[in-house]
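Homework help thread (please don't just give me the answer)

Our assignment gives two proteins as sequence + structure token strings and asks us to describe the second one. The first is just a warm-up. Here they are:
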Amino acid sequence: MISPAELHRQLHDLLQQLSPERLQVLADFAAYLANAESEAATQELLAIAGLLKRVKQNQSSPKTDYTTWRTLRSDL
């Protein structure tokens, strides 16, 4: 399998050969792929039972009692 660094280098080399019109097509396609990946991750999170409800509950009732890190880690 090819490393991400090598893929970046190959893409950079190929980008130099493309016309502005083709670069726009490539940019549009890359945006589509990024959106599809983001949507897949969102759907994966939404599939976790009760996750959205817990997040909303945590946002609506912020914590008011905090403990300083020095109390928790007095050895530092």
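The one we have to describe:
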Amino acid sequence: MMKIIYFIAFILMFSCSRNVEDRCFANDYEQIFKSYTEKEPFTVKEILKHKPDYIEITDLKKYRTFKEDSIQLRHQDESEELSEKRWKIHEEEYEIFKAKFSDQFLFSHKQQTGNITYALGNNDLGSWLLKIENNKSYAYFLGLSFSHYYINDIQDKSIIENGFLQLQGSLVKIVKVAGLPGYDDYSAIGDGKLFKISLKELTRDSDDDGYNDIFEQSFGLNPNSKDTDGDGMSDFVDLNPMFASVKNKFTELYELLLPTYAHTTVDLKELHYTFTVFESDCDYFHQVSPDERILFIPESERRKTFYVNMTDVTRGNISKIRKDKANPDRFYISKSGSSFENDYAAEYKNGKWILKIIGGIII
């Protein structure tokens, strides 16, 4: 009887799963890009209910409101001369961090504790605690969703104290600004909060691969394996750490449409904390060999990690492929960003792809 049950379960699982054709190719009636649906912002109650266990949130009796801090941060009515002077002072203060981390972060809140120098770093993925000790650099992802957590630019106390990272700030919601595609503003829904994370919890790196457990859990990597995709390269070195790379004509098509960067003196392979994130279930897309670090998040909300489900970490995407019924070597694919979409005709000739823009939208 149990064998029959297992067999039926296997058949159901197999029949419900999509194959490569479904995951990578759009049919005639399917949109190649998923329609964007504005999510309802989380309430304070929902944020507190669903926050990760390692984050402690308490109410402050005295605090700087989100409005007060954000106005101070903008430096309104500041002269160009004063702005340049302030920026030069900032660059000199964080010179040691720029030397170690290049331009991977915006730096703030520097603190010296014994022989350790700390700072906060922010990039497209979120906030990190940066540490330089004995001339070695470390970055620890906080897992504080920038969609819901605002960290004050002005902190009344040290950010590192008694074995904890402690940050004053507010709970916020994203407000879309009409007429400015891709631009988000924020509104406070809960002022006067203290966010605390144990340094022991924050710096835990179970597989000793260079990424803290919070980062790996937030983006779907395996915190208990140095090599999530099993391709023989450590996640810290691997440019595509989630999936093993494979060479075929469709992975090459996706590689042609990956973001390209202007000439830089910095080796992109050394930018260990800079990732471009794509939302896709397509195997061919997953198997690319990129020139810079990429991560993938699943299309299904149910399969996403809590962090990426509540935080928009994608800055663009590449669509499924649509076949040309009249020509088996011609396909159609699109690439989108915050303010554009380009539609391409892709033809495979003599072992190479020829791309031609056939339409699109610029907002």
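TA reply:
I won't write it for you, but here's a hint about the kind of observation we're looking for: Confidence is low (pLDDT under 50) at residues 1-16.
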